[in-house]
Records
---
Amino acid sequence: MHREQRSLFGEILDWMLAPLLLLWPMSVALTWLVAQSIADRPFDRALAETVRNLGQQVAVARQQVVFQMPPTIVEFLKGDNADTVYFQVLGARGELVGGDPELPVPPEQEPHDPGTVKFREDELHNEPLRVAYMWVIVQGASDGQHALVQVAETLNKRSQLATEIIKGVILPQFVILPLAVLLVWLALARGIAPLSELQRRIRRRQSDDLSPIDESEAPEEVAPLVRSINDLLARLDQSIKTQKHFLADAAHQLKTPLAGLRMQAELAQREIDAGQCDPQELKKSLRQIARSSQRAAHMVNQLLALARAENQGRLQRRHEVPLARLAAEVVRDFVPRAMDKRIDLGYEGPDTAGPGAAPAARVLGNPLLIRELIRNLVDNATLYTPAGGTVTVRVVNDPFGQVSVLQVEDSGPGIPEAEREVVFQPFYRALGTDVDGSGLGLAIVREIAQQHGAEVLLEDANTAGEMAGGAPRGTRVTVRFPTVPLAAEAPAAHEVHP
C-alpha cells in the first residue's frame, strides 16, 4: 500500500486557507452580535425617553394613582409604522391605571429602584418584545407609593437595522475573500518558482553528471537541502570512481590466473595432438591448471568478501558478537591447513567452551563480517608463515579501556614499516615473497574494522629472533573493538594446537 505523495504547494495552501475559511464564519457570527448590539442602542434610548415622559404623567388624586396621557404622546406611540408599541401604568397595588392590560410585568422578586429605567426581553401573543420599565414615586402620595410604567415594542426596526449593518460588513467580504484566495495562490506560486527551477535544472542533468549544484541560485531556505545533495553527489562520485578502479584492478588481477590456466590447457592439448603424451609433463600441466584455478577461485572469493563488507556492513542489523568464541572457531577451522604446513597454530583467550566458562566481553556488530575479518587474518598468517613457524590468535579483554583486543601473530617474514599503510590497499602484495596471494585480505580486514568502529594496527611480532637481538621477524595484527561491557568477567586461557 503506497502512501499518497504530498504536495508542498498544496500543503502550504491548505494551512493558509483553512484558517481563513474557518475564521470567516466566526467573523460573520461576531458581526451579527455586534450589529444586534449597535441596533439596540438608539431604540433603547428612545424607549427610555418614552418611559420617563410617561412617568411624569403619573399623579395622585383623591388618594388614588391617576394617569393622564397627553394627545401628543398618543400620536407618538401610534405613529410607528414598523413596530407595534405597547404601554402600561400600574398603581401601587398592581391595579391597571392606563394602557394595555396584557403586557407582562417584571418578576415579583425584582427589587424596586425608583427613577431607574431597566430593560428586558419578553413576549406578547408569541411575538418578541423589547420592554423598558421604571418604578415611579408618585408625587403627592402620603405613603410613598410606587407606580410601574412600562413601554414595549416589537423588534422589526431593530432586525432591519441589524440586517443592514451585517450586509454592509459581510457583502464586501464576499469580494475580498475570493480575492485573498487568489492573491495567496499567486504568492505561493511565485514563492515556490525557484524550487521548480531547481527541479528543472536537476532533471536536465545527464546521468553521469555528478558535479555540485550551484547553491547561489537556490533560495536560502533550500540551501541546506542543496548542500546535502551536493554532499551525496560527492560521495557517490567518489564511490563510483573507487568501484571503477576496483573493477579495473580486479579484471587485471584475474587475467593472470586465467591466462595461465588457458596456456597450460593449450600446451597439454598440443602435446596430445602431437603424440608426445609424456605422463609427467601432462601431470605437470594439470598441476599448473589446478593451481591457476585455485588462485582464480580464491581471488573471486576475496572479491565477494570485500563487496559484502563494503555493501552490507552498514545495512545489516548489529548484534552482540562473542569475539572470543568466533576466534576459537576460526582457529579450529584452520587446523588442517596448519598441520599440512607444519605450523603451530594456537589460540589464547577467554575459555568459552568449557562448562564453567565465565562470560566474555562482547562486541557490537555483524557476526558474519567479524568472522570474515578473523578468517582473513588467520589465512594471511598461515599463508605467509613458513613451515615450522607459529601462528597465535589472541583475544584480550580490557575492561578499563572498554575494548576487546584481537591479535593475530605469526613468525613470517614480517612487513617493512614503510609498507604497513599500503598493504591495506586492494591487490597490493609485498615484494620479495613467493606466496600466491590475492592482495585483498588486509583490505577486507580494514573495511570490516571501519564498519565496526575498530582500530587496526600492524607491528613487528616479539619473536625469538628479535629477543636475541637479531632483525625483527613476524607480524602482529591488532584489532581493537569497542565492547559491550559486562557486569563480571573472569578471563581464562587455553590453547588449540594441531
---
Amino acid sequence: MADPKREELQVKAKRAILVSVISPSSHINKEQALDELKGLVETAGVKVVGTLVQSRENPHPATCLGKGKLAELKSMVKPVDAELIIFDNNLSPSQGRNIEEETGTIIVDRSELILDIFATHAKTYEAKLQVELAQLLYFRPRLKRLWTHLERIEGGVGAGRGPGEKQLETDRRLLDKRVAELKRKLSEVEKRRERTVSNRFQQLTVSLVGYTNAGKSTLMNALTGADVYIADQLFATLDTRTRRWELPHWGEILLSDTVGFVRNLPHHLVASFKSTLEEARQADLLLHVVDSSNPEVEHHIKTVNSVLEDIGIDYSNALLVFNKSDKVEDRSKLDVLRLKYENAITVSAVSGEGLDRLSQAVIDRLASGYVIVEIETPVGNGKLLSQLEEHSLILSREYSSDDTRVTYRARIARRFLPVLKSSEDTEIRIHDEGDQGSPNQLQHEESIHKV
C-alpha cells in the first residue's frame, strides 16, 4: 500500500540529512537541536551526511522550512548523495509531500523514524501488534500521498474514477479492517495483562519509568541480579519485564522495567503501548529514573511526567532517581539537582553507588502507604479471611487456647482499610509499620503465612 520507491523503505544503513525547525523561545538552542535526533538515527543505523537547523517562530504550514532554507536543503542533497531527509519535527501529510516533491528525496519525519526503530526492536507478540497498529494509524492519513504515482482520469458527471482513487479506497478499507483486528487482539492481550497484574496484588510492585536510555535496564540488573538486555541506544527495551527484588530488612517485591519515553512521542504510539504500561499504572511505587549526566535532565523529567499524565498514570506517586552519577563531570550540577529535588536519590547502577540508599528509600515509601492490622475474630469468619487474602499480606495467625478464635496480623494498603469492617464479635486494631517493629521482624516470625 505504498509507492514502489517507499514500500521497501528502511532507514537502516541509509545516508541522511538531518533537519530541525525550532522556535526561538524553545529551551533547546541551535547547537543542541539535533542531539536527540542523532541518537535516534544512530539507533536506527543511519549514516548522517549533513545537518540543517532553522530557527523560526512557527514551522511553515506548507513546507515546514522557510523558502530560503528549503532551497538550501535542496542544494545539499546531491553533493552528499543523500538518500533520506529526516526531520526532527512531526510533519503533516501535505508538508511531507511538498518537501519530497521539492527535493526529490524521500522524507522521513520524527514519528516515522521512531516507528521504524520500534518495529526493529519489537520481539514479542504484544509489541509487534502495538507497533503495527501505531504504524497503520500513522500512515492512514498519508495514503493519498503514497499513491500520487497513480494518475487520475478526469471526467464529467458520472465519469468513472481513476485507478488511483479506486486503489486508495480499497487500501483504506483494508487498512481500517486490519486496524479493527489489531485493536481487538490488543484488547484481549490487555485483559490478560490486567488479570495477571491484579493477581499479583498480594505482592508489592515497583515500576521503573523514565526517559529512554536513562539506564533503567542497567539499574534493574543491579538491583535484582537479572539478565535484562542492555544496550547504549534509545528504545533498547520495548516490552515490560518483571523480576523479583529482595529488599533488605523487608522482603521480596516485584520490580518492572518499562519502555522509555522521548519528547514528542507519536500519539498513536503512546495509545498503542497503554497496555504495556499497565504494570506502571498498577504499581505501588514508581521509580522515575533520570540520566543525571544529560544536559537536558530537567526537560527529560518534565517530558516523562507529561507522558505519564497523558496515559492516566499518577506521577505524584514516584521517587526520583538520578542515575549515572559516575558520568557527571561537574559534581556541583548534582548538588544543584539535589537541592531542587530534595527527595531524589542519586545512584550509579554501574558502580553501585547509592543503591543501598535507594533500597531504604523504597522501603520507607512503601511502608508509608501501608499499615499493620491485628484482627481478632471467630475461626469461622470465612468472609473476613477471604477479604484479608484478597487485599493484604497475612503475616501471622494465632489461635486461642480453645481454638474458637484467631488473631490475624496483616500488612494492608491504607486505601483498602474500608474493606475491613468491625462487628460485635470482631475487633480490629490498626498500627503504623513502625509501631510493630521492623518489617523484617514481622516477616521472619515463625508463624508467618504468605498469601
